[in-house]
Every structure is written in structure tokens, then in C-alpha cells.
Amino acid sequence: MIWIWLAVLLAAVVIEFITPTALVSIWFAAGALVALLLTVVQAPVWLQVIVFAVISILLLVIVRPISARYMRGNIVATNADRYIGEMGIVEKRITSQEWGIVKVSGACWSAVAYNCDAIEKGSRVKVIAIEGAKLLVTKVEK
User: Fold this and answer.
1) Secondary structure element (H or E) that encloses residue 31, with its range
2) DSSP secondary structure code for residue 83 in this structure
3) What is the pLDDT of residue 77?
4) Nearest to 99 by CA among 79, 85, 114
5) Helix (H) or strand (E) holding 132
6) pLDDT band for position 37 (cuts 50, 70, 90)
7) Whole-number pLDDT of residue 121
8) Cα 59 to the chain's mean position, in Å?
């Protein structure tokens, strides 16, 4: 049984190293390590399996959300959501497929039409949402 837990431990560590996102399988590596230690002290197999499962799930459920919050780090609050609901003027024609330019509260944004085919230059628009670096806008009738 020692070889099985060693294989699970090594597989989890290898998967952790080759995945681009952090903290994917480390929880199972920790569970396998504890099960491996139980094997060394000759604990029954059923206990090893239960301890592996409990340790892995507990770490996944409790520690992962906390560690994920600290690992984000590079998120910068922009307050861009304040533009949602604001009115703007189209500076460059917008379609649902092609980005245009909208001026909202003195700032120029890339924008795409939402639920309409095209919005011509000079039209009034309302910001519905922000998707990535562009505004989703809909035409406002005067």
C-alpha cells in the first residue's frame, strides 16, 4: 500500500507543477502524504482511505478559498462599473460585431452594440455592461 500512496503523492505534485493555475491538486498530495504516514505505522487500509479523503476534502474546501484570495494579488480596482447606466455619445460607428468608440463622462471607451444592429456616430447610447475592456451599449431614442 505504501507504493500506491507514494504514486498518488507524486502524481498530485507533478500535476500541480504542470498546471498553469496554482493550487489544483496539492490538496490530494497532502492527503496522500498523511495516508502514507499511516501506512508506515501499519494503520488499516480503510483508515488510510478515509483519512486521505477527509484531509483532501477539508483542505480543498477550507484552505483553497483563503489561498485563492491571497494569490490573486494583481487585481486593481478601477471603479469602471460606475459607467454602467450612464449615457454617452458615439464617436465612431458601432455594430454588434465591430467595436466603435463611445464618450462617457468625458472618457472615450471601446464599445460594442448590445441588442441592436448598428449605432451611428453622434447617437446617444446607454451603457448596459462592461465586458473586459469594452462597454456594451444600446441606442437611446431622443
Assistant:
1) helix 26-40
2) G
3) 53
4) 114
5) none
6) very high
7) 93
8) 20
Stated as kind and residue range, the H or E segment containing 78 is none
21 vs 126, more confident:
126
Angle between the N-to-C axes of helices 26-40 and 2-18, in degrees from 0 to 180, rounded to the nearest 10: 160
**DSSP element (H, E) containing 11:** helix 2-18
* Block residue for cell numbers 505504501: 2
Quote the pLDDT of residue 72: 60
Closest CA to 14 of 5, 1, 24: 24
Q: What is the pTM of this model?
A: 0.51
Quick one: average pLDDT of 75-94?
81
User: 78 — alpha (psi -120 to 50), left (phi > 0) or beta?
Assistant: alpha
Q: How far apart are CA 83 and CA 108, in angstroms?
A: 11
pLDDT (mean) for 107-118: 87
| Residue in 115, 112, 114 with CA at minimum distance from that of residue 132 | 112
C-alpha cell at 91: 464617436
Please tell me the distance from the alpha carbon of residue 116 to that of residue 139, in angstroms, as a whole number. Answer: 8
Question: Residue holding cell 493550487?
Answer: 23
Alpha-carbon Rg of the chain, whole angstroms?
A: 26
